[in-house]
Amino acid sequence: MPIRNIQNSFRNKNLLFIDIETTGLDISKHEIIEIAAILVNTKNMKVISRFVIKVKADNIKIADPRALKITGYNNKEWKKAASLREALIKLSDFGKDAILIGWNIAFDWSFLGRDYYKLKIEPEFDYHKLDAMSIAYAKLIGDDKYNHMRLVKVGPLLGFKSWKIHSALDDVTVTYKVFKKLMEL
Q: In whole angstroms, what is the distance from residue 86 CA to residue 91 CA?
């Protein structure tokens, strides 16, 4: 992948908070079924825009039933879902030149990167990626009340108490809010 806009300082790039939901945890066989993102201005940390799209799974029969239950997957809501190609192109356009941030970004990018590569789509994001979970770890390691690094544990301890867990848009919204709070510590 070529490095794009290397002259442009990272301080001038937007941040793209991202979360995906999948049909399971196994990258060798499971698929993305939902993508959500929040585009944020780096200078003032204000939301520019939100993006959410349901993605049609090609092999739903091999999905992990627990994953489908956790994500709330149902045929009715996913009936008009976008193709993976369409979803990835829209996401790339939405977050053009932005730096990706996610809670355990390695998981999200493992699926996204695999699919961009498989479909021969050049993603338009900046090549840098930040992990909000790692930042939380670095900021909170000395505080005894933080025993887990899962978003569902860290979010409430920072004041974000209720959201629909494993809804891509809700999870990415809490990730953004937690990140903002961590930057204030």
A: 9
Cα within 13 Å of Cα(179), Cβ side: 26
- Regions of the chain where pLDDT drops below 50: 1-3
pTM, to two decimals: 0.92
Helix axes of 132-140 and 168-184: crossing angle, nearest 10 degrees = 40
Whole-number pLDDT of residue 1: 46
pLDDT given for residue 165 in this prediction: 83
How far is it, in rounded angstroms, from Cα 23 to Cα 61?
Answer: 10
Q: Which long-range contacts (CB under 8 A, 24 or more apart) does 118-123 make?
A: 119/84, 119/85, 119/88, 121/85, 121/88, 121/89, 121/92, 122/1, 122/92, 123/1, 123/88, 123/92
Domains observed in the chain: 12-184 (3.30.420.10)
Q: Where are the alpha helices (DSSP H) in 42-81?
A: 65-71
Round to whole Å and give the CA distance between 5 and 158: 35
Judge contact between 103 and 160, C-beta under 8 A: no
Q: Are 41 and 48 in contact (CB under 8 A)?
A: yes
What is the pLDDT at residue 67?
Answer: 97
Q: Buried (b) or exposed (e) across 13-45, using 16+ Cβ within 10 A?
A: bbbbbbbbbbbbeeeeebbbbbbbbbbbeeeee
For residue 170, which amino acid is it? Answer: D
